[in-house]
Amino acid sequence: MPKAKPVPEGPPHPVHRPATFLELGAMTEGEARTYLEAVRWPEGPACPHCGCVDVSRLGGAAAARGVLKCRGCRKQFTVTVGTIFHGTHVPLRKWLLAFHIVCASKKSVSAHQLHRQMKVTYKTAWFLAHRIRHALGHDPLDGGLLEGVVEVDETYIGGKPRRSNRAADRKPPKGTGPGGTKKAPVMVLVERSGRVKANHVRLASAVEAARQIGKHVHPLARLNTDESRIYVKVGRKWKGGHETVEHAREYVAEPRPGHKVHINTAESFNSLFKRAHTGAWHHVSTTHLQKYANEVQFRWNHRDMSDEQRTVMALAQGDGARLAYAAAD
């Protein structure tokens, strides 16, 4: 057993400024680990098992692997324990690069592209991308109800139906997307010039619309929707008021000077979502659709940050966001 060495007082290393893509690419594995420690423990290491900050860094061969030992529970750990990186065999420097690529790609990136760029197998790249999307769903700034003017819209993600001569296939299935396609519905709620919440739902119905609005929108917020019938019932009861725009004849309604009613912000988010699907992902199963929504939602909610700051924010969200391969498959 290597002899434990006390950690010096204060942080074991300086808190790094957000690193650029070139700086991340030039890091050694040890530097990548140090960088990740600075992101996860800006005030110094803490035991992920008991939360104790009285820890020591082991010497010898264990030091190269970043092993620490808690003086409270006596357990050993590294910066990856209990995080999205737990048990990974992919080098941490490649993880950092992958996080940066996903956070900086406005219209996303495919697993095949990560496979080519990171020099890993496609299976590894696919799981790596889903782990990142899983972490992006743990955004601490995503909490709280949407306020002010909240635009609500539904969008449908998926490809065109295959041609068929069977009458049963030509008949539009009940509860599906526009034109009878089997596209998956996503409810999008967005503050005008603010945050967005995008959730995959089984069916875009009046019941589901009321549930999503009641869960994510402040009661005094003013709702803006299109003329879809699924918003009529919840709109009648909504305290903050409900206004609609009729897309059959206009994009923006102005019932009085300076008072604009529209859902253009929500449709901008929908456009980005569909661009990512068409240009990068190509196929999205309903099993993983929420993870893809997490990714686009995260980039939207942090659009005022630089790519480097957004990457640090995403890395910090990996704490406590473990995802086993069986759960991702």
Chart the SSEs and their pairings:
Blueprint: E1 4-6, H1 21-25, H2 29-40, E2 55-58, H3 61-64, E3 68-70, E4 76-77, H4 92-104, H5 111-118, H6 122-136, E5 149-157, H7 167-170, E6 184-191, E7 196-200, H8 206-216, E8 222-226, H9 232-237, E9 242-245, E10 253-256, E11 259-261, H10 264-281, H11 289-301, H12 307-316, H13 325-328
Parallel strand pairs: 5-8, 8-9
Antiparallel strand pairs: 1-2, 2-3, 3-4, 5-6, 6-7, 10-11
What does this entry show, briefly?
This protein has 329 residues and is an alpha+beta fold.
Written description of the protein model:
This protein is an alpha+beta fold and 329 residues long. The protein folds into two domains: 1-81, no CATH class; 143-304, Nucleotidyltransferase, domain 5, CATH 3.30.420. 37% of the residues lie in helices and 15% in strands. It contains 13 helices and eleven strands. The strands form three sheets. Strands 7-6-5-8-9 form a five-stranded mixed sheet, sandwiched between helices. Strand 3 and strand 4 (76-77) form a beta hairpin. Helix 5 packs across helix 6 and helix 6 (122-136) packs across helix 11 (289-301). Mean pLDDT is 86; it is low at 1-15 and 174-179.
